UniProtKB/TrEMBL annotation:
Keywords: DNA-binding
Keyword DNA-binding: yes
GO molecular function, one term: DNA binding
Protein name (Swiss-Prot/TrEMBL): Transcriptional regulator, TetR family
Length: 214
């Protein structure tokens, strides 16, 4: 996390530092990125950088945290818009999320993040579904409170959290695949929706139906 010194900076200087970091992380992965380039882009001294962040990883995860907050709110609003329906809420969220990631002005940053995704980056980027009501949440709502469980084979809140996490990991894997294979936004959306339907409705075919294979 940034130091309090960073948060005390004038807004213009904070924005300049964030823009300088985004420029570097959009061109290079976390491992390849250089603090020298970040401070040059941001027009600050190297000494000043270490007054604000412990290292480049600290800065990188701070940027991911800002992005995570935005897509957490997008997920909440998607479920609310679909009246808590699990499949329709996740479908709407995934369509908006994939479009945002792959058409964003921050495309280079997201492309590098997904193409170099590892366990630590994945952990930093994922939504914390174990939100507490004491946290400052938009509208005071937790995602798990918005999702309807009436027609889900789940017996507890922890099971709901597990499946939300599992599908989010599947979504991130699909976006990663989209970047690797240079798929379009629509192709990536369709690929994920097919996988979401497998999870939601299962892959077993009713006995009265026949299956044909290509």
């Amino acid at each position: 996390m940034p130091t309090q010194t960073f948060f005390n900076l004038p807004e213009e200087k904070k924005k300049r530092l964030i823009a300088g970091a985004m420029k570097e992380f959009s061109a290079k992965s976390l491992n390849e990125a250089s603090i020298s380039n970040i401070v040059k882009n941001s027009q600050i001294s190297r000494g000043s950088f270490y007054q604000y962040f412990e290292d480049k990883k600290d800065l990188y995860f701070f940027l991911i945290g800002k992005f995570r907050y935005n897509y957490r709110n997008l997920m909440l609003k998607s479920f609310q818009e679909k009246d808590g329906d699990f499949h329709e809420g996740y479908r709407l969220f995934s369509e908006k999320y994939i479009k945002y990631i792959m058409e964003s002005e921050k495309f280079g940053f997201f492309e590098n993040m997904y193409l170099h995704m590892n366990y630590q980056i994945n952990q930093e980027a994922r939504v914390d579904f174990k939100e507490t009501k004491s946290q400052k949440l938009p509208d005071g709502k937790r995602i798990v409170d918005v999702v309807k469980r009436d027609n889900l084979k789940l017996t507890s809140e922890n099971e709901l959290i597990d499946i939300l996490r599992y599908i989010l990991s599947m979504l991130n894997d699909t976006i990663m695949e989209g970047f690797w294979k240079e798929l379009t936004v629509n192709e990536t959306q369709e690929l994920f929706l097919k996988r979401l339907e497998w999870i939601t409705y299962g892959i077993a075919v009713p006995e009265e139906e026949e299956v044909t294979y290509d």
